[in-house]
């Protein structure tokens, strides 16, 4: 594909069966996206969890969690290893159910839309709820340009100028100035921190509603970690962000609110400064002060 061309979606052939239920649109408006690119905070979307439970076979990993992620805010998920925080995050974009024997119950609402409801297209959910993983995972056989363009092409978005969107996404990820003269080189050739920002650019290229980050800086050096944290501050102008982290200092630096999980249960969710200075639950205080975990 010529990078200057726009992508289109094929028309449905005559006589082809229609989907039983057409998935509702899960993309922000063009106006909101343009406003956010001009530095204006765009209205993002909230995520609400109601009685969310997650299982691995007979193992009950997440237990009756009620939690709301506010629009245009960063929420940090903290807790010891195995407490269920990564499982909970993967439930939000329905990746958890891809594991054999895994399932979840309860409601996951994007504003008022139940993402686990009947007729919801899972592919649309995963486009609306972007995911950045702990280890950078650029497509190894693709160039920097094609890594970012891949999601746009696969989603078949109508009328998108791919070249322009790639540049916008790389700028949004704080990577454009570093790679603009080598877009045709392999993405895998970038440094670890650059690869992670490339993956973030790939995520925002399809203009999701929410971005989930599962320990996005745990494998990076301090300078790269700082760049990721600065990027998170910028991205919340456009998106709702959930970040799983074991780094208490990172949670304190980047998060507006923090949720503490223990043994699959949500112990406490409050403003980050409250969680780290005067939490309501003694278990939260013991964890953030390093007495366990």
What is the top-level CATH class? Alpha Beta
Helix percentage range: 25-40%
Give the termini separation. Answer: 50 Å
The shape, in one word, is globular
Subunit arrangement of the protein: single chain
> For the largest beta sheet, what order do the strands appear in spatially?
7-9-10-4-11-12
CATH homologous superfamily caption? P-loop containing nucleotide triphosphate hydrolases
Q: If you compute it from the alpha carbons, what radius of gyration comes out, rounded to the nearest whole angstrom? A: 19 Å
Unreliably modeled segments:
1-40
What is the string of helix and strand elements?
Answer: EHEEEHEEHEHEHHHEHEHEEHH
Question: What is the CATH architecture annotation?
Answer: 3-Layer(aba) Sandwich
Which structural class best describes the helix and strand composition? alpha/beta
**Main sheet properties:** 6 strands, mixed
CATH third-level topology = Rossmann fold
Beta strand count: 12
Strand proportion, as a percent range, falls in 15-25%
Give the overall pLDDT as a whole number: 86
Q: Can you count the helices?
A: 11
Query: What number of structural domains do the residues give?
Result: 1
